[in-house]
Amino acid sequence: MAITDWPESERPRERLLKLGAGALSDAELLAIFLRVGVRGASAVDLARTLLGHFGSLSRLFSAPAPEFAAIPGMGSAKYTQLQAVVELARRALREEMVAGDALSSPRAVRDYLRLTLGSLPHEVFMVLLLDAQNRLIVAEELFRGTLTQTSVHPREVVKLALSHNAAGAILAHNHPSGVAEPSRADEALTQALRQALTLVDVKLLDHFIVAGAADPLSFAERGLLDR
Fold first, then answer.
1. Which helix (DSSP H) or strand (DSSP E) does residue 98 occupy?
2. Rounded CA gap, 218 and 144, in Å?
3. Distance CA 172, CA 124 (A)
4. Most buried by CB count within 10 Å: which residue of 25, 185, 212, 224?
């Protein structure tokens, strides 16, 4: 049955207008993006198929074009539209961090990192540099691969911070395994970077580990920064 044949109170668009986007399920929100379904399946059915195939919104957002296009009813046009929406969300979160105190809006930082790193199949190490008012200056990927003190060079992090005249830094990396718990190597690396940044008067404010769609783990909240 087409969505237009549903009772008006059950249609995703009408529900969003009446109740707000937060009241809708992932499938309903995705159905509004898709607009139409395919023969024998409504947009909501198609949305559920996509979520079932990829397992989560974050994996759907980061899916390669060929895998996305392999789903019946999908194609390059829908793929580019979806990627545009995801990138707009990232940019909106970056604007929020640039415009205000990143530490007073930690949700924007977490959401940005989750959108950027949450579903990557490989480890990535990022540095977010802040000015004296804790506003974002730049967010830059520095390294890929297994993170150790030998693969993530403190001098490169310090060099980047100095080049932007940063006052503070937030570190972030992802765990493709989906487990956000920090390893001993993660803790040792954090301490090495904190000490190196302190030498040039740059304060390490936090280190986040991103694992899938879960809330990123904060070293500061765990009390792991000053060990």
1. helix 76-99
2. 20
3. 8
4. 212
Distance CA 224, CA 111 (A): 21
CA triple 58-63-68, angle to 5 deg:
125
pTM of the entire structure?
A: 0.73
Return the amino acid letter for 80.
T
Nearest to 206 by CA among 121, 123, 126, 111: 126
Q: Which helix (H) or strand (E) holds 136?
A: strand 136-144
Residue 22 token pair? 């937060």
Q: Are the beta carbons of 155 and 196 closer than 8 angstroms? A: yes
How confident is the prediction along the chain (227 residues), in pLDDT tens digits per residue?
Answer: 566 667 666 788 899 998 998 899 999 999 998 888 777 788 888 899 999 999 888 888 888 899 999 988 888 989 999 999 988 988 888 787 777 766 666 678 888 898 888 878 888 999 999 999 988 899 999 888 765 544 788 999 999 999 999 999 999 999 988 888 898 989 999 999 999 999 999 999 999 999 877 789 999 988 988 76
Distance between CA atoms of 35 and 97, rounded to whole angstroms?
32
Report how far apart, in Å, the C-alpha atoms of 217 and of each of 2, 90, 113, 144, 212 are: 42, 19, 11, 19, 11
Q: Which two tokens stand for residue 172?
A: 């972030």
Token representation of residue 134: 């804790």
